Amino acid sequence: xxxxxxxxxxxxxxxxxxxxxxxxxxxxxxxxxxxxxxxxxxxxxxxxxxxxxxxxxxxxxxxxxxxxxxxxxxxxxxxxxxxxxxxxxxxxxxxxxxxxxxxxxxx
Length: 107
Prior knowledge:
Blueprint (H helix, E strand, L loop, with lengths): L1 H13 L4 E9 L13 E8 L2 E4 L18 E9 L9 E6 L11
Antiparallel strand pairs: 1-2, 1-4, 2-3, 4-5
């Protein structure tokens, strides 16, 4: 489900080169070497001009591979003015549930 949602958001972002969508959530629990369950890890992902890029975790070099694994949980999204300037970030909307940004008019 997360992979399909990312694909929809990436498609919308292709038509909005002046916007960046920042997603925050958690990755599935990691299993330690002894088989014990680990804790969930928080992630941050940016979607810009049709591509997703993680700023907290490595992703596959192949852009056709999903940026998040199945089981990732999306928590919130913020719409930012793009291209981003880390020194003067401009938040246009959010944080809000990610699904609200499936409507292209919200971009």
